Amino acid sequence: MTKDDLRRILARIDGRGYKAYKDIEGSYDFGAFTLYVDHAQGDPFASPSLVRVRVPQSMAQLPSSLFANRVRRVALQDFLARQVAGAMRHVTRGHRGTGKSGLMFIDEGGQEVLERTAIVVRNEWVEARLQVGLPAAGRTVLGRQAEEMLCRELPQIVDRALLWRNLPQREAQRFVECVENQEHIRARLDELHLIAFVADGSILPRASGATDQPMPAAQAVLFKSPDTLRTTIELPNSPSLIAGMGVPKGVTLIVGGGYHGKSTLLKALERGVYPHIPGDGREYVVTSRDAVKIRAEDGRRVEKVDISPFIADLPYGRSTTAFSTDDASGSTSQAANIVEALEVGAKVLLLDEDTSATNFMIRDARMQALVAKAHEPITPFVDRVRELYERLGVSTVLVMGGSGDYFDVADTVIMMRDYLPLDVTADAKRIAQSLVTQRKVETPQPLQAIAHRAPLPSSFDPSRGRREVKIDAKAVDLILFGSDPIDLRCVEQLVDFSQTRAIGYAIHRAVEDFMDGKARLRDVVDALERLFDERGLDVLDPFHRGEEHPGNFARPRRYEIAAAINRLRTVRMQQERH
Ligand code: ADP
Ligand code: MG
Predict the structure, then answer these.
(1) Within-domain flag for 233
(2) Which of 46, 123, 295, 561 is the most buried (most CB within 10 A)?
(3) Looking at residue 250, which CATH number applies to its domain?
(4) Strand locations in 182-290, DSSP E?
(5) Ligand 1 lined by 261 (C-beta under 6 Å)
């Protein structure tokens, strides 16, 4: 069918009941592109209709150099989604009619650049996946308005945002190259013996606590590495060299007075596991992809986690080698968060005193004197942090303005002063020697390898009411899996609503295909990553019937997928004994 056929159908159903929109499902040749109406919504208040536009490369002419490898392709796709969103804002008239009538959306990203399903670039074509609110007055089809949207606005959007000749070409190039530079730095961290890199000139603070936008450069103190930690890295694209602070492997403390920028630096490191858009201010803050933020999270459920390295001998002899609770405390939740992160492969832990349980972090000499070890279940983090590195190769970056007991165990001490980092490692070591801490190291047993757990597929129930599978992301930090909410408010490195949506479906997929009661959680997330690498995120669509709109998914990390599984309150696991 052609554009004219679509026009005819819309003219015919004009004035009829909303269900008549089902008649436009199908594909239409528009000459420059093909329009696919994959799903027409049932009423003007329902989720918008799913449409795709596919433009052959003979028309689009996107330079193949901009999608020559995986990193470049993800970056270009992300860039194009933003361009389509911009064109929509410019071209569409917007709301016209009842409910979502007249609205058009594409799943564009925020400050992070993520692999997402909104745009697909192939050698043969480029495709944009959109949501369209088909217009109605009440429940009556507004055929003319629909024609304006689909036959006039949509072609203009394609023209502006998907044809290379009309795109801001230098900006596209710069975007792709910037993302490639970031991934290049990430790939080099290991051999440089670093876990993160923060470029000179970066803007770490945000405009406010309510936004992810950078603080205006005129207000912000630009990052500047201490000379002793400065590293220069060659880049594949302009600029050919970049200098900044290398955060070494091992144990790194961030100290300094209140309000001097400690948490802002840590937050930037947390987000640095993802690439950022040029202009974010953190586009050259790059962290190991295996860095996981750890915090206290009282009230969470915990299922058979061996937290005994940190907490043992609870009152009345309760075991902690397979610790389960429906209501964890600050310290037990923080211990579980660490062990669960290690279980699926974390190599770097990021902690902030602001969100940590004090009794989990420190236990000073006076408290040791008053409360004997025999009556204190907690082995504080200060007594494990070196072992984590020396036995398991897991580095830690820790914001700790409140206790100098950590000087003894740190490899690197960075002091934030007036928002600038100073390398005070030597001073801290000198102080640790002259002002000897009176506290004793309390490690009843050396740190062991992590005990793996196998999730039991029977403990997942995706059904709700009459639906066999009903999974919704309600917000970036809330999934409704069947009837069971998964609270992700403390999973701070989850940044995009579409990642959350992907996690909901990924769990279902994993239950169906990868869990058998024996497969370890670690193998399950491995299998999901392989699936995404091989087949892309489109496979997550539970209704996937081949070439159709897969919905809006962005790629989550293994750590956030595992975190969601661990927070499903019904989940049951089988623990392997060492
Ligand atoms: P701390 O953790 O040391 O108490 P924060 O990191 O929370 O301090 O920062 C305190 C305030 O200073 C925040 O409002 C933050 O936005 C601001 N800030 C942080 N870094 C900078 C900077 N480089 N330039 C300007 N303002 C900053
Ligand atoms: Mg702070």
Answers:
(1) yes
(2) 561
(3) 3.40.50
(4) 194-199, 230-234, 241-248, 251-255, 285-287
(5) yes
Mean pLDDT by 10 residues, the chain (578 residues): 97 97 97 96 94 98 98 98 98 93 96 98 98 96 97 98 98 98 98 98 97 97 98 98 98 97 98 98 98 98 97 86 96 98 98 96 93 92 97 97 94 98 98 92 87 97 95 97 98 98 97 97 98 95 74 96 98 89
Q: Are 481 and 509 in a shared domain?
A: yes
In this prediction, residue 544 carries a pLDDT of: 63
Helix (H) or strand (E) holding 530: helix 521-535
Rounded distance from Cα 257 to ligand 2 centre (Å): 9
Nearest alpha carbon, ligand 1 atom 7: 263
- Are residues 392 and 510 both part of a single domain? no
Count how many domains the chain has. Answer: 3
Q: Is residue 173 assigned to a domain?
A: no
* CB-ligand 1 contact for 220 (6 Å cutoff): yes
**What is the SS3 assignment for 31-87?**
CCCEEEEEECCCCCCCCCEEEEEEEEHHHHCCCHHHHCCHHHHHHHHHHHHHHHHHH
Candidate of 245, 259, 420 to mutate for ligand 1, largest count of ligand atoms within 8 Å of Cβ = 259
* 312 shares a domain with 389: yes
Our answer on whether the CB atom of 404 is closer than 6 Å to any ligand 1 atom is no
- Which residue, of 419, 434, 451, is where some domain finishes? 451
End-to-end CA gap in the chain: 63
CB of 204 shorter than 6 A to ligand 1: yes
Ligand 1 atom 20, closest CA: 261
Count of Cβ atoms closer than 10 Å to residue 538 Cβ: 18
217 in a domain, yes or no?
yes
258 in contact with ligand 1, CB cutoff 6 A: yes
Among 167, 199, 224, where does a domain finish?
Answer: 167
Residue 257 CA: nearest ligand 1 atom is 3
Q: Where are the alpha helices (DSSP H) in 132-226?
A: 143-147, 154-162, 169-189
Q: Which residue has the tokens 């586009």?
A: 283
- Any ligand 1 atom below 6 A from CB of 264: yes
Indicate if ligand 1 lies below 6 Å from the C-beta of 221.
Answer: yes
Q: Which of 293, 258, 112, 283 is nearest to 204 (CA)?
A: 283
Check residue 314 and give its pLDDT. Answer: 85
What phi, psi does 309 have (nearest 5°)? -60, -30
In a domain, 172, yes or no: no
Q: If residue 28 lies in a helix (H) or strand (E), which one and from where to where?
A: strand 26-29
Q: How far is the CA of 106 from the centre of ligand 2 (A)?
A: 36
Mark whether 446 and 518 lie in a shared domain: no
CA of 443 from ligand 1 middle (Å) equals: 35
Residue 204 Cα: closest atom of ligand 1 = 23
Predicted confidence at residue 319, as pLDDT, reads 84
The CA distance from 275 to 277, in Å, is 7
